[in-house]
Structures are given as C-alpha cells and as structure tokens.
Amino acid sequence: MNDKPEKLIDKKGLRLDGRKPDELRTVKLEVGVIPNANGSAYVEHGKNKILAAVYGPREVHPKHLSLQDRAVLKCRYHMAPFSVQERKSPAPSRREVELSKVIKESLEPAVFLEYYPRTMVDVFVEVLQADGGTRCASITAAALALADSGIPMRDLVAACAAGKVDDTIVLDLMDTEDKQGAADVPVALMPNLNAVTLLQMDGTLTQEEFESAVNMALEGCRKIYAMQKEALKTKYVNVSEENKDEEEAEE
Ligand code: ADP
Fold first, then answer.
1. pTM exceeds 0.90 for this model
2. Counting beta carbons within 10 angstroms of the beta carbon of residue 57, is it exposed (0 to 12), middle (13 to 18) or buried (19 or more)?
3. Quick one: which of 47, 50, 15, 11 has its CA closest to 29?
4. Is the CB of 177 under 6 A from ligand 1?
5. Which residue's C-alpha comes closest to atom 1 of ligand 1?
C-alpha cells in the first residue's frame, strides 16, 4: 500500500504536500467542544483530528493511587479503530501505553498539581484520524483542555516535531515523511518559561542536524502557542457574547 515515493522533496525543494521545509501543516484549534467535561479541546493538525477532554480534580480511583501532597495526573491516549486506513484494534497497544506516559510527562510540569492533594485529574485523548505527529498534536490539545478546565497552570504546553527527509531538515512531518524519512524529533515547550517538557528522537542525525531540527521544532511550538492563546480567547469572547444576548433577551 505504502509504496515509497522516489523523492520526498522535489527539485523545487517542496515536500509531497507542497509545503516548504520550514512550513507547518494547517492547524485549527477549538476549545470547549465537550460541554460535559470540565475542559476540552479539538485539534486539527494537517489531517490529524484529535479530541481531548479533562475531568477533575476528582476522587482517585483506585484510592491507593492517591498522593498526599498533590493530584495525580492521569492521561489516556487512544487511537480510534477508524483513525488509520487499516483497522486498528480498539484495545490499548504498547504504543498507546507509551504515548499516554509521554503525554502525561509533557504536561505534568505545567500544572499546579500540588493545589489539589489526594485528587486526580483525568486527561483523555482520542485520535479520530491519524497522519503522523499525533503525540505532539495530542499534547497541544490536552494542554488547551487543561487550561479550559480552569486548573491553574504555570504555562501552556505547545508541541511540534521536526525531522529529516531525504537530506533536508523539515518541520512537522506527516505520516509518509514520518515513516519514510530519516529521523523525527518531537518537542514540547512551555513557551513563557522557555522550558522543554518533551524531547525524543527516532532515527539518526548528526549533532548539527539535531540542533537545527530542535530549533525548527521550537519555532513550530511558538507558532502553535500563538494559536492556542487565540483559541482560548475565542471561546471566552463567544461565551460573553452569548451572555450578552441572553441578558438582552431577558430585558
Ligand atoms: P506520532 O503519531 O506521534 O508521530 P508514531 O511515530 O508512533 O507517533 O506514529 C506515526 C504515525 O503512524 C501515526 O501518526 C499514524 O498516522 C501511524 N500509525 C500509528 N499507529 C498505527 C496503526 N496501528 N496502524 C496504522 N497506522 C498507524
């Protein structure tokens, strides 16, 4: 099915989807999409479509997992069976268990968990459609959902990958580039604290290539952060407009 194209970068230096090496895919972010959750977000990052929902702080189940000095942050990353072309088993795979841990560890430094001892904050990430880079898009979505839930945070977390395809360092790899490229470096950043909360590498890069990929990914994170702030603002502008309409209707 996935025949390897001869070249991932054409003569003009453009990628299979027409992007320049340092160009992000189109990103759309929306906050407050699941009203029953305490916080939620929907992210479209290229062809990735991802929902995140936050519940809590709430009682810990099972109780023995509770911590005396802070809340437990629990993350579940799950890919829907229809999220990829070949049906994926709905049971949690090793990859999903790993990504749940990766996402939790990327978000934990940003949340004031110590404000809520003996409680639990549940973060559910559901990938509806996957096309490479879902861990980063999931972190972006989950951080927005946490912010939407009102749990105090030190900073937002924005994530983006860079990597190497053919001989070029590129930003934000899509599925084909991820699978057939030489390397993938996912990065998550707390932009105001300028602190990296995730740095992984799959593949091989020279030290110079690694540095240039990390810098490119950090630039991508900063662009995504600007969009996250806009998405949060948009929700509250919409809510205040709805309230205004209701007040006017009552008068
Ligand atoms: P990430 O999504 O963070 O890049 P991986 O590198 O593990 O994580 O996965 C790369 C891509 O491979 C995913 O985004 C998805 O498009 C695809 N993929 C992952 N798991 C499966 C699967 N079980 N079946 C088909 N495609 C998959």
1. yes
2. buried
3. 50
4. no
5. 133
Q: Say how many Å lie between the CA of residue 19 and the centre of ligand 1.
A: 21
Residue for token pair 């009102």: 150
Residue 81 CA to ligand 1 centre (angstroms): 12
CA distance 120 to 58: 5
Q: Which strands sit side by side in the sheet containing 39-45, from one edge to the other? A: 27-31, 39-45, 48-58, 120-129, 72-79
DSSP secondary structure string for all residues of 81-92 = TTSSSSPPPSSP
| DSSP per residue, 182-207 | SEEEEEEEETTTTEEEEE--EE---H
Fill in the DSSP letter of residue 118. T
Using the mean position of ligand 1's atoms as its centre, give its distance from the Cα of residue 125 in Å: 15
135 lines ligand 1 (CB under 6 A): yes
Q: Looking at ligand 1, which atom is closest to the CA of residue 134?
A: 2
In angstroms, what is the span from residue 231 Cα to ligand 1's centroid? 26
Structure confidence at residue 52 as a pLDDT band (50, 70, 90): very high
The rounded distance, in Å, linking the Cα atoms of 84 and 107 is 26
Would you say the CB of residue 50 lies under 6 angstroms from ligand 1? Answer: no
pLDDT surpasses 80 at 1: no
Lookup: tokens for 59: 């009682």
User: Which residue has the CA at smallest separation from atom 4 of ligand 1?
Assistant: 133
Could you read off the pLDDT of 91-147 as tens digits, one per residue?
Answer: 999 999 999 999 999 999 999 999 999 999 999 999 999 999 999 999 999 999 999
